[in-house]
Amino acid sequence: MLSTQVRVTRNRKIVESMEALEAKIGKRIPLLSKILLSDTGILEDKLHIILNSIPIVHVIKQIESDQVISRQIYMIDPNSNRRLVYAHSHICSNYLPLRIIDQIRDKKLGLGRIMLEYHMEIHKEILTLGYDPRNDKLFRSYRIYNKKRPIIKVKEVILVTDYELSGAIILK
């Protein structure tokens, strides 16, 4: 069975899109997963709050070609070494300052954290929400804009369950 996706459009709010996805897959999306899927800020910060520890960004693959950087990462819980989120990004490097490109090349921080530290004004637009029944994982795709130009496209897969996240909350 293929994954199920719901397009998030300007006419449909994120909450309505989440409800439409729940209707399509025939089950409720747990609260913490809804928060992570609907996040338009810095996902690392939300995970930090939930886990009470700063997630580690582990770059597993990064390739540069023709003004595009393709990057694959895992966000990892430093306490358990559990993979929390997988993300695959396509970065238009010709629209970014060299100091930000250097930080991306350094492979130590997530993209949101890098842009925040350099005070880059961005807007995040969630494009799709989805569910893959083959691995029972929720995902989303979004675009990051700067000055109305799309600079980054990301697909994130939530690898951890609400039960695992809430267990981390209780243990802390």
Primary descriptors:
172 residues, 7 strands, Chorismate lyase, alpha+beta, globular, 6 helices, seven-stranded antiparallel sheet
Structure, explained:
This protein is an alpha+beta fold. The chain has helices spanning about 15-25, 30-40, 45-50, 100-105, 110-115, 160-170, and strands spanning about 5, 55-65, 70-75, 85-90, 125-130, 135-145, 150-160. It has a single domain, classed as Chorismate lyase (3-Layer(aba) Sandwich). The protein is about 30% helix and about 35% strand. The chain has a 7-stranded antiparallel beta sheet, with helices on one face. Strand 2 and strand 3 form a beta hairpin. The longest helix is centred in the first third of the chain and has 12 residues, at about 15-25. The termini are far apart. The mean pLDDT is about 90.
Quick take:
The protein is an alpha+beta fold. It is built from 6 helices and 7 strands; from the N terminus they run E-H-H-H-E-E-E-H-H-E-E-E-H. It is globular.
Overall SS class: alpha+beta
How far is it from the N-terminal to the C-terminal residue, by CA?
Answer: 38 Å
Strand fraction = 35-45%
Number of helices: 6
In CATH terms, the superfamily is Chorismate lyase-like
Largest sheet: 7 strands, antiparallel
What is the level-2 CATH architecture name? 3-Layer(aba) Sandwich
Overall spatial form = globular
Strand segment tally = 7
Radius of gyration: 16 Å
Text of the CATH class: Alpha Beta
Cross-sheet strand order for the largest sheet: 1-5-6-7-4-3-2
What's the structural domain tally? 1
Overall mean pLDDT score? 90
